[in-house]
Amino acid sequence: MKRLVIKFGGTSLMDTRRIQKAAEIVMSNKASGVDVIVVVSAMGHTTDNLLELSKDLTASPDLREIDALISTGEQVSASLMAIALRSLGGAARSFTGQSAGITTDNHFGNAKIKTIRKEALEVALREQVIPVVAGFQGITDQNEVTTLGRGGSDTTAIALATVLHADCCDIYSDVRGIYSADPNILDRAYMLDAISYAEMLELAKNGAQVLNDRSVQIAMEHQVKVRVRSTFLPNDTGTLVTNHASQINAFTSIATVTKKNCIKVQLSAANCKRLQDKRALRHERTEWKRILLRLLFNAGISVEPGSSLKNCPNEFSFSLGQNDTQKAIAVLKQAMPSMTNDLIVVEEDLAKVSVVGGRLDSAFEVDAILGLTKAGVPISIVTRAKNRLSIFVPEEYKHQALGILHANCCVLAKVAA
Questions:
Q1: Higher pLDDT, 225 or 343
Q2: 255-412 falls under which CATH superfamily?
Q3: Alpha-carbon gap, residue 215 to 201, rounded angstroms
Q4: What's the whole-model pTM score?
Q5: Helix 63-87 and helix 16-31: axis angle, to 10°?
Q6: pLDDT (tens digit per residue) in 251-283
Q7: Helix (H) or strand (E) holding 351
Q8: Residue ranges, CATH 3.40.1160.10, the chain
């Protein structure tokens, strides 16, 4: 018999009316002869409300207690969903992360799944009982409750689809699927029929809120088919995330993320002895780049190397989160004692606008940069990956940059904007 994992996000479970609607979707699939496993997030805003309660007591609550607190939100959803399914004539049983057999490491607030002991879930399925699993949570080997970080219910769902050998994992939320850009920002954005794992992973890592990046990584590693669908339009097929997507082309989608900073380091004569020899200087810059990136990594600072439009041979640029900026500057100055403040330029409050696609060549990059500069959009740095081009602009230019790049990309992909 075919198996299907269905995950409902918080907006799909905002109140009992929506829970009832989600339960009807589950029962419709069950009636078609499919074994269904349900994963639920907390009801909309529940997690935020619980966190606010803890902040009323202290500005620095213990992470263990926070996980114990916010994991209750998903448990409430699981019980209510099981009740709703039973009211519709289904056999259903709620499971916590622990009773579902999900064990994790002990990183409270951002735990990773280690193993899933699926025996209890298999027993329920053999008895034709619908398991309703509280997402976002697990338990350590020491029986401590943990949570899986932002979007952790996606991770729970796809991990369960992997170990239970499900034919597909349907992720239901308040959006129809995956779009060429955020439709809340750009009304010209269009929905994709399909997207590859690799492209979805880039989008998830660079600001797209549809799927958690860790869940996409699991799906890609285990070839789990994922469909992103709308709870409110259950007849829509949504967007399929799979290994081979029919829409792979030069452009797939654009993601944005804010609260980024950029640091540009000017290598001085005290650090580089060959400033007059550009070829030698570029080699020396590469060596310093390697050294500094290693030091920043060892300091626990996540950075992304890039380049400015000037492409100065004695400049080293990278982006990072706002909270890590001062720590990164301290690391740089320790590594290069002669480094003065005038040789370190910090550009703050940037937005990262990332174009993801199958064939983003150098000509595409030139066209993208020209389109933005002609429109007067300042560009801080540019970073690149195999199927991604990211351009950092001041936050106030984010929407303008998104619109320009999307319009250019639609022409490139021969899709009507």
A1: 225
A2: VC0802-like (3.30.2130.10)
A3: 9
A4: 0.89
A5: 60
A6: 889 999 999 999 998 876 445 544 444 555 566
A7: strand 344-356
A8: 3-245
